[in-house]
Each structure stands twice: as structure tokens, then as C-alpha cells.
User: Fold these one by one.
Assistant:
Number 1:
Amino acid sequence: MKMLSMVVLCFAVLTASLFAGAAFGAEEISINGSTTILPFAQSTAEAFMKINPSTRISVSGGGSGNGAKALIDGVTSIAAMSREMKSEEADAAKANGRNPVKHIVAVDCIVPVVHPSNPVKDLTTGQLRDIYSGKITNWKEVGGPDKKIAVIGRDTSSGTYEVWNEKIMKGEQVTPRALIVASSGALVQAVAGNTLAIGYDSLGYVNEKLIKALSIEGVQGTPDTARSGKIVTSRNLFMYTNGNPGGDIKKYLDFLVSDDGQRYVAREGFVTLK
Amino acid sequence: MPNRGETLKLSETAPRAVITVIAMSGILVMAFILYFLTKEGIPILKDASITQLAAGRLWYPVSSPPLFGMMSLIGGSLAVTLTSSVLAIPLGVALALFLTEICPKRISGFFKITLEILGFLPSVVLGFIGMVVIAPYLQIKLELLSGLNLMNASMLLGVMILPTVATLSEESLHAVPQSQRDASYALGATRCETMFNVVLPGAARGIAQAAILGVMRAMGETMVVLMASGGAALLPESAFDPVRPLTSAIAAEMGETSVGSAHYHALFFMGFILLLITLSLNVLVIKIESRGEVK
């Protein structure tokens, strides 16, 4: 067993170093980062490669933090991030001689979601904050049935959590009793399988058949309210490059924000820039 | 052209050299992992004292000021490991006893294959079953707040470690010489008495090792607990409370944390704690082994 795992490890290291080497090659763009952005980064990359067969784009997820780390270490050409780069990350990049430049590639908003059988339709930011901080523990208090609330959140380090924390929690701490799931997809599963649950997720992940999105302060999460910022949880999605991009990287980013590229953003359920 | 003697020499020394290098590289990798975990984990002590880390119950790594209490996470790890061991180890040993002592040969072959298949089941598949099948079932039937909890994760972990415990126990039960069983029967013992007074004590050391290996596997397992344990960082008060074991905290938070932050170092420190726990279990296995040799 030990021997086997050692061999596997060696292979993993070898392949990893091969990939790292390839990332430096010419005509090869690598995108690394947020799992939120992954779906449309992938489809636009495929579409771009069809138009420009000489360019190769490899896309990988792993999280906004991983994307930032890859850009800092110089192993990716584009870092996909669902939050803005933190000052400590920007400092680390500068210390490594890199200059992260921000590009807004799509818009998104985060909506509270419940089980489809739940009669509650709308919550205020105050109610949401009280539910997540543990002050409201029964659906009865917000106009629902006399049942306890199963609060489901995301990891403190996810980009989605950060937006929720900033726009809804406003510095208050999420109760330690909250269930924590590891990804946007897992949150949908968890809420769809629990009639008492409340969660929050990116608009692109809301599947009306499985879960029900609530409005916040009477504002429904839609592409329009996200773009105009009418819904408080709207956010931008970013790609970061090292310095002002040129060549193929610039061509890809231009394609992504063009009408053609934005069609793929819309197709994956996200909100286009225009 | 080398003469015959030299060629022979080379053919004898070469395999030895190759094997030595491979064996050493294994040790080197282990040393490197230990060095890396220490180097990346120790800096957390600048932000929090050992007592704050070990006795703090609140895990708010990115709030300001951040709180790095790992007690709930360590408690979560211990709770799932303990519960799954209590569920799986007696069952595994009983299964092994059944296979070696009671079950007819033809049927036992079928059982062994089934066990092996169970062992090959990818943990992510089990986690998925926990999430979409067991969790809603538990939640509705027992009217819980959530079906993603300690019991759900422990049951799945139990399924994961059952093949390890059963297969290894079965091997050590097999190793008990037939002559001892025969001697017991010759003294007039019944089959039941032979099983519990002769075969089981004879294989006790091997069974203990099998159990510890199972415990180690449960302790280090990540995917199942990440998907099915609920992930709330609190000390469980009942078997149906959600928990957040160390492994799932590392897996869930490492991807999005900013490199070099206190949170990042705290996650490596957790890895260090996990390594210490499994290492001490490993030492226990070696102790059990060596005690047998002295006798």
C-alpha cells in the first residue's frame, strides 16, 4: 500500500511539473481560479479556440485564492476570481514582480434559496442577517410554518461567502450552528433535500426545479437587478492578468466581453455586462 | 569487454542499489512532507497561542479579528472516527469470524469478493449517496434539522473501513493453526467455545492491528465527511449534530484562502495535527507487532 501511494505521488509530481512547464510555452493561455467562473470560462475558451485554432487555452478551477496564488507564482496567464484581489495578495504579487490588472468579465448576484415547498417568498436584509447570525431560529418568525430553520452557508473563504458577509451580514458573525457546504453545487443539493433549509447561491446555480429563490427587500434576483445593482447582493466577476495583456490573452479577453463571448456567459446562467 | 566476474558483480549489486534508492526516496518524501507541514504550519503560533488553538471553540478564520479555535474541529474528527469505529469494527470482526469459522467455503468466496468490491467503492460515490439519499431520509424520518450530520458521515465511513477491518481480521484468524482448533475440540470444547476461547485470542494481535488501520483510515478520510457531515464547526452534543472534521476543513478552505495568511498557516497546522495523530496510531501498530515478536 505504502509503496503504491509513493509511486502515485511520484507520477503526480511528474505530471504537475510537465503541466507547469507547458504553461510557459508560446500560444498557450492558462486560466485558473474561481469555480463560479469555471463554466463560462470553459465554454468561451472552447469557442475561442475554434476561431483561433493556433491558440490553446487550458482552464482549471480550484478557487479564487488558488487563481491568485497561480498568478502570483507566474504559473497562470489569467486568474479567474469571484472577488476582488485582497491587498495582501496584491502585495505578494508586487513582491514577486507581477502587476495584477483587473478585468470585469461578467455580473452575478447572490440570492437566498429555500426548498420549493416553503411558503416564504421575501425576506429583508435584516431578517436574513438575523437568521444567519442565529437570532431568528424558527420559520414562524418570518411568516413561514412553525418549524426550525436549518441554516446552510458556505465556507468562510469562498468568494460567494465574502459577498454575502459584506452585503448581508455587515460584519456580524454567522452562527457556528450553520451547516457549511463546500461548493455552489453542493449547496443546491443540500437545500433541495431539506424542507427546513435556507441557503444562498449565485444566480447561475439556481435551478427552479430543485430550489426556490427568494427576493430580498422585494427585489427579485434577475439579470436586470444584478446589472443595475438594485439587488444588494450583486457583484462583478473578474479575470486578472499580469500587466496589461497583449497578444492572444488580450484577444481572448476582448472576445469574452464582446457580444459573441457574452452569449456564452448568458447560456451558463450568468449575467452579461450589457 | 568486461570479464565474466565483473558482469556477475554488477548484476548482483545493481538491483540492490536500485532498491536502496527507491526505498530511500520513500523516506525522503516522508521527511519532506513533515518538513513542509512544519514550515507552513508553525507560523500560526505568531497569531494564536497553542492554548487558543487547542482550547478555543470558535473557528472564524477570516473574520476580524480572526479566531482560530480548533477544538470543535478536532472534536469533530474524533467524534466521526469513534462513531464509525464503534459501528464498523465489531461488525468487521464478526464478519471475519463468520467467514473463517462458520461459512461454507463456496459461499465465503462470494462474500470475500463482495467485500473487496465494497473496498474499491470510491469515497466520492459514498459521499454522494450520503448527500442525496441518506440525508433527506434521515431528515424526514427522524424530523431532524438536517440529515447531513455526524451519524450520516459515520455510517458511510463505517462502510468504508469495514472491508479493511474484515479482510485483515480474516487473515489473522486464518493464521491461527488448525492444530489448535483440533486440540480444543479434542478437549471436548464446543465450536462456540473454540471460537471465543481459542481462535479469537490467538488472533487478537492481528485483529487489534486491523482495527487500528481502520481507525486511521476513518481519521484521514476527507471526501465522505466533506460531503455528508454538515460542516458546522461545533462540538457535537448528539449523534445527529453536524460536525466539521479537520480533513474536511482543510479540503474546503485551502482552495480559496490567500496564500501566506494566518488562515493558510492554520490549515497547515491542522494537517500537522492529523499527521501526529496517524503517526501515533502507527507507532501503536508497531508496538503491538513487536510485543508479539518478544514472546
Number 2:
Amino acid sequence: MLLVLSDEHKEHLGFLPEVDSAVVGEFGRIAVEFLRKGTNPKIYEGAARKLSVDAETVQHGVEGLMYLLTESSKLMISEVDFQDSVLVLGFTEELNQLLLQLYLENRKEIRHILGELTPSLPHYHNLEWRLDVQLASRALRQQVKPTVSMKLHLEESGGVKSAKVLQTDPATLMHLIQELEKALAELKTTHCRRILRNIK
Amino acid sequence: MELSESVQKGLQSLADPTLSDLKTFPVLIELAFRSLLTAHADCSVLDQPELKRIDQKLLKHCHTAATTCILEGVKQNVDKSTISSCLEDFRFDAERTDVFYITYQVMTTLLWRCPPHINDVSWRLEYPIKNGHVHKVNEPSYLIFIKQNTNNGGSSEEVNFSCTMEQLQDLVGKMKDAAKSLEKAMQL
């Protein structure tokens, strides 16, 4: 699947062949850093001064790279498709290889960052459990009443952790285990295997 | 009960009738218990109109002394005679000791809260293909809904979360460990 670049995008990336490949490499590193931690406009000014160009040109170049990387990672395009998409820009072979390397090295991480943008439920992190036995209460002595207390650790996509304390009795615990084992077994059925195999 | 000198001084101030009369004293004690029972610290807890005339520094000292004394009492699960003799040492009169102990009894029952009790679990197996931000996701994922009863008896709440197959295997493994320990313990 080829990436279709708009004219504006091509124009922004048009700045890249005018500088050294070392500088393009540096821009690539800055683009990935901005994707990880957010943009920092001061960097554009510093780079613009060193290269004797407008800060806006540098900004467009870096943003163009960021968009190229996010779109390619989102669609998970193959090496060949990436190279063909970039061919349209008319860059040198060296620059094309540099961009390809940048994409291949960072696409997994970029997909992970994009994945955090999707709305999702908190996901499972850990489970701690404790066995308690109630031996007596004000109303009744000499009891044996087992309970299992559990602390369920969950994590939201932004890294926010939470923990919920829950309690259950032995019969419900066995029921929970049975139900969840059924859920795990479902993944191994022919129906699920067929779908997982065919939709890739 | 062993209490530090600072706490002892605070309790002596609490017992002092010139500092707090029999109207203000119950308010102070109740506030001390409430500070311990609420989940989040409330900076304005001592901003009560009844306490305005008391010197703020002294008020804070008394509040700290009261909360420390309560925590020591709960830790050692003290009975009425221990608390009474302890407070008498700090010159609490009989009325104040009664007020303290009654509030202590009422509030400590609130400390014995039960976590919500799990009723049931339901699950959903999904195979996300793509979303607005990432295409070709292609990884099966489980949605787990744990139904529970809250303390208010009857009302049912849900804890919902997602997990991968490996995480679900981890969860089930840990629950099975708990069940095995339960079985071993019951055989003793």
C-alpha cells in the first residue's frame, strides 16, 4: 500500500535535500523525540540559526518528517512500499535509505505511542491475593469462614495506575476460575484460529 | 498505651476546661476521628466556627494528640478500662472520658469496612483490526467485567478492564494459586 503525500507535505519535505545527510539524521532524531515527548519550538530557532534559514522552514521540515513517520507506522507499510512512496519526492538514494532506516528503526515505538491515543479500558497489571479466615464475631463464636481478598492493579493508557480491593468466597473464586479458563480456551477453538490466521 | 511527651501535653490541653468547654470538646474529638476516616487529607478540617476562639497552634497540637491517641488505641485494640485509666492520667474528667469512649466505639466500627464482594464475572474476546490511530492491530484482546456487591447491600457495581491472553493467563494462574492455598488451609 503506497503512502499518498499531499503537495504541501512534499513542499515541506523539499527542504531536506538542501542540507547534509548528517543534518537530516539529526532532524530525524528530533522528529522521533518530539513524537515521544512533545514539540519544543526553541530547537527550531537554534537549528535555523546554524543553517542560516527561516525557523519556519526548519519547523516544516521536522513536522513533515514526523507526519511521514506517523502515517507510515500507522498503516504499517512494507519496506518496498515506503521506498516507492518516498521515490515521488525525487530525493537521492542516500537520503531515501536514511529515511527508510529511520522508519524501520522507530515504527514499533511510534505504533505504541499512537496506540495510547485510542480510547480503551484500563488494562490488567497485576493481582495480589490474601486468604482470611473469620474465626468469631460478636454474634457468633467458633466459626470458620474463609474469604479471599484480592488487590487488582490496573493501568490506564497514560500510565496512571490504580488498584481495586475486592473480596470473594471460595465457591465464587472457583466459579471465576472456571469462567476465565473457558475464556482462554475459546482462543484455541477452530473458529478463532481460522480468523486469526486469515486476517493479518 | 505509650504516648510521647508531645502527645501527652496535647492531651492535657484537651482536658483543660478553660481551653474547650463541654460544647467544643465533642466537636474536637469527632473531628479527630473524621480526619482518620476520610481518604484524603482535608486542610480545612479545623475551620469550624465552634473552634475559632481557640489559639490555632494549640488547636493543631490537640488535634494531633487526639489522633495519635486514637491510633494507638485502635492498634492495641484497647478496652474501656485501659482508655479510661489512660485519660484519667491526663486529668480528663468523667464526662470527657465518656464522650471520648462513646465516639471511639461508634467510629471504630466504621473502620472495619469490608471490600466489595465479587458476585460474578463475564468476558468478551475481541480481535481489533484497526482503529483511528493505528491500522493492522491484529491482536486478540479480552474484556473482563467483574460484578460486585458494594457495602450498601444490593447495589451492584462493575470493575471493567482489558487484557491480552498472556495477562489473562497470569490472572488465572494467580487465582488458582489462591484456590490451592485455600484447599491446603482447609485440610489442616
